[in-house]
Amino acid sequence: HQFKRYEFWKVNSSKAYYDIKDSIYAAKDNKGLMIKLFSRSPNKLLYLVDTIMPNNSWKVYTPLSSTYYTAPIYINSSVFIDVELENNKNRLTKDFSFNKATGKKITLANAPSAQYPGNGGAFGLVNGVVSNKGINSAEWFGFNGKDMEAVIDFGKAESFTTVTLDMLSQEGSWIYKSQLTEIFVSDNGKDFKLVDAFVLKTDDLKQKVAFKFPSQTAQYLKIIAHNYGKIPEGKPGVGKPGWLFVDEIAVD
């Protein structure tokens, strides 16, 4: 009713109160994802789901369905979801990219900073969503002076040759990519074998960093992305512990 008054008075007002929110969590038995949508608006949520077809470096979206939202949406493949409020300009889009780690069980040895806790706890590292908003995205996990040590349980033995980490590099904000990343595998979740250790070039500014190795078959995967450590002379924040920002883990 209050917004109707603003409209009658011809007063400009923010509609952020009606922003569409989402919650992403694991589907039953960690076989896919569920996305729950909600808004304070009395208007209905209308969503469109598009398949994603790789075409060289482009993505081609093919409409699958457009319907009113009534219950959490099940996702088990790469899709693009576009949600909007009926008769309203508020909108939410999510680009889900699936891989062997998406939706699986994941645990962290070190908790991220309370300032940058990620989206939905540790599960946010395998929720299929990659940040496209820079440091302002809620998808980022920030580790201040700590390593990111994650263990993924695939639920069964899986074969893979590549682990890709989405990491942020922003020296002005004291954020540095991991210079040393170690990959381990295990069949029982207790005894881990080192697959390889990767040293990242300091001038590699790509957000997605792929670590490739000979094919491995295992149920458990451990990734340790070591923190940069103390910031060196000549850099902003000299002497302070660097931040490590990780967004998504992909396994192929």
Which descriptors would you attach to this protein?
252 residues, mainly beta, seven-stranded antiparallel β-sheet, 1 helix, 3% helix, 47% strand, globular
Describe this structure in a few short sentences.
With 252 residues, the chain is mainly beta.
Describe the structure.
The protein has 252 residues and is mainly beta. Helix content is 3%, strand content 47%. The chain contains one helix and 14 strands, in the order αββββββββββββββ. The chain has one helix at residues 2-9, and strands at 21-26, 33-38, 45-55, 58-68, 73-75, 79-85, 91-96, 105-108, 141-144, 148-167, 180-186, 193-199, 208-225, 243-251. Strands 8, 9, 10, 11, 12, 13 and 14 form a seven-stranded antiparallel sheet that branches. The protein has a four-stranded antiparallel sheet with strand order 4-3-6-7, with no helix packed on it. The N and C termini lie far apart (51 Å).
